[in-house]
From TrEMBL:
<keyword id="KW-0627">Porphyrin biosynthesis</keyword>
<comment type="subunit">
    <text>Monomer.</text>
</comment>
<keyword id="KW-0808">Transferase</keyword>
<feature type="domain" description="Porphobilinogen deaminase C-terminal">
    <location>
        <begin position="229"/>
        <end position="306"/>
    </location>
</feature>
<dbReference type="InterPro" id="IPR022418">
    <property type="entry name" value="Porphobilinogen_deaminase_C"/>
</dbReference>
<dbReference type="InterPro" id="IPR022419">
    <property type="entry name" value="Porphobilin_deaminase_cofac_BS"/>
</dbReference>
<dbReference type="Pfam" id="PF03900">
    <property type="entry name" value="Porphobil_deamC"/>
</dbReference>
<dbReference type="InterPro" id="IPR022417">
    <property type="entry name" value="Porphobilin_deaminase_N"/>
</dbReference>
<dbReference type="Pfam" id="PF01379">
    <property type="entry name" value="Porphobil_deam"/>
</dbReference>
<dbReference type="InterPro" id="IPR000860">
    <property type="entry name" value="HemC"/>
</dbReference>
<dbReference type="InterPro" id="IPR036803">
    <property type="entry name" value="Porphobilinogen_deaminase_C_sf"/>
</dbReference>
<feature type="domain" description="Porphobilinogen deaminase N-terminal">
    <location>
        <begin position="5"/>
        <end position="216"/>
    </location>
</feature>
<feature type="modified residue" description="S-(dipyrrolylmethanemethyl)cysteine">
    <location>
        <position position="245"/>
    </location>
</feature>
<protein>
    <recommendedName>
        <fullName>Porphobilinogen deaminase</fullName>
        <ecNumber>2.5.1.61</ecNumber>
    </recommendedName>
</protein>
<comment type="function">
    <text>Tetrapolymerization of the monopyrrole PBG into the hydroxymethylbilane pre-uroporphyrinogen in several discrete steps.</text>
</comment>
<comment type="similarity">
    <text>Belongs to the HMBS family.</text>
</comment>
Length: 319
């Protein structure tokens, strides 16, 4: 008897597309490993989807999109759910776990501009659309003359607004555009040195019930250890700073060496950069440290920034 795994998803095009990709990958793993599973999609409308017209940072509440999906999972209506890692809350509900962190794709932010402007060549006072305080802070630090204006909605409606609302450019995560097959829309990528990505950007998380051993076994086959390590350092950094999805915080971790001089595999070495900045870009604090343990590393980078005044910046940004 085949078990049908019910996959919950939000209705946005991005959510549906990501969920589709993950189901395809899981089906391939089931074939490879002779696992007897079928898959079925169930769409869920979350609170976050119903209030897209309100500024999300004002509505607050971490994991706005995730809560109802988690309840459906606890109720047994669905068995797993695919989340953009950067939208996944730091604390999952009791009884639920992140069963897999698949291989991360491009973590960078991308500039989509009319007339092929790069961030350097945008005219003085150009209007750039983004609702992210993190993007706003870093763009203004580099180009204080830019006029940053909020732009909300799904990726497709933001691309439409670029033209309809007369923006010179907008900034979106490259990952979402690639997953949608819209990579061609990208004018330039913002280097991570200029615009540090959101914690977990470009990665996915796959949530399931802690006790669901069939699903957890399947998901363990889909996990990417390196992505899991680097993303957990970034997420620890964020949780120490107590950041939600709308704070001027960024972080990006990579593995710096898998081997020591003798070419023996040594424990992975993680390099984590964290940033906190005023939304107007007048000050940006950044810190880079290297370490073996992702949790300690995340804490250390956060404490270092706190000792340099990150707490005051965040308190002001939250007002
Ligand atoms: N904040 C919304 C959001 N959540 C996840 C993505 C796609 C990128 C990703 O998976 O990291 C986006 C769009 C964006 O920021 O441009």
């Amino acid at each position: 008897m085949k078990r049908t795994i019910v996959v919950g998803t939000r209705q946005s095009q991005l959510a549906l597309t990501q969920t589709g990709h993950v189901i395809d990958a899981l089906k391939r793993l089931c074939e490879e490993h002779s696992l007897p599973f079928d898959f079925e999609i169930r769409k869920i409308i979350t609170k976050g989807d119903r209030i897209l017209d309100v500024t999300l940072s004002k509505v607050g509440g971490k994991g706005l999109f995730v809560k109802e999906i988690e309840q459906a999972m606890l109720d047994g209506e669905i068995d797993l759910a695919v989340h953009s890692m950067k939208d996944m809350p730091s604390e999952l509900q009791e009884g639920l776990v992140n069963g897999a962190t698949p291989l991360r794709v491009d973590p960078r932010d991308a500039l989509i501009s009319r007339q092929d402007y790069s961030l350097e060549t945008l005219p003085q006072g150009a209007r750039v659309g983004t609702s992210s305080l993190r993007r706003c802070s870093q763009l203004l630090a580099f180009r204080p003359d830019l006029v940053i204006e909020p732009i909300r909605g799904n990726i497709d409606s933001r691309l439409r607004k670029l033209n309809e609302e007369g923006f010179d450019a907008i900034v979106l995560a490259a990952a979402g555009l690639f997953r949608m097959g819209w990579g061609d829309e990208i004018t330039t990528f913002l280097p991570v040195e200029l615009c540090l990505p959101a914690v977990g950007q470009g990665a996915l998380g796959i949530e399931c019930r802690e006790e669901d051993h069939d699903v957890r076994h399947l998901l363990s086959l889909y996990n990417d250890k390196n992505t899991e390590l680097t993303v957990s350092a970034e997420r620890k950094f964020l949780s120490v700073l107590n950041g939600g999805c709308q704070v001027p915080i960024g972080a990006y971790a990579t593995l710096v060496n898998d081997e020591d001089e003798t070419n023996m595999i040594s424990s992975p070495c993680i390099m984590l950069t964290g940033m906190v900045g005023y939304p107007d870009g007048r000050t940006i604090l950044k810190e880079t440290l290297i370490g073996n343990d992702p949790i300690r590393l995340g804490e250390e980078v956060a404490w270092k920034l706190i000792s340099r005044g990150a707490g005051e910046i965040l308190a002001e940004a939250r007002e």
